[in-house]
C-alpha cells in the first residue's frame, strides 16, 4: 500500500504504507514532511515496522533527530503499531514513549482508530479547520 492522504479525526494525515522504504534518519523525515506539506497534511503516521532499528535504540539519537524535525516543521508524528518488544528491553525508550504520548506533537499509537480518538480530542489549529499539533 502506498502512502496516502486521509482525513482522520478532523486532521489531514499522510498515512505511510507498511511496505514503503525504511525511515533511517533526518533526511527521510524531511522527505516525509515535504510530502505531508505538499498534500496539506497536519500529521504523518508511520508504521513502526518502517522505522530503522536504530530509531528504537535511543543512544543512536535517531529517534530524537527524527522527532525534532517534525517538531521544527510543525507536523505531528504518529508511530503506528506495537512497540512493546522495544520498550520491554529499554527503560529509556519506555520513558521516551510515555513522554511523547503526554504531548500533542508525537504519539505512539497501536492503530489508526486510536490515532483518530486522540486527534478528535485536540482543539483546532488557528487558521485551519483541522485539528493538529501546536
Automatic annotation (TrEMBL):
Domain of life according to the entry: Bacteria
Annotated protein name in UniProt: DUF4180 domain-containing protein
DUF4180 domain segment(s): 10-119
Pfam families named among the record's database cross-references: DUF4180 (PF13788)
InterPro entries: DUF4180
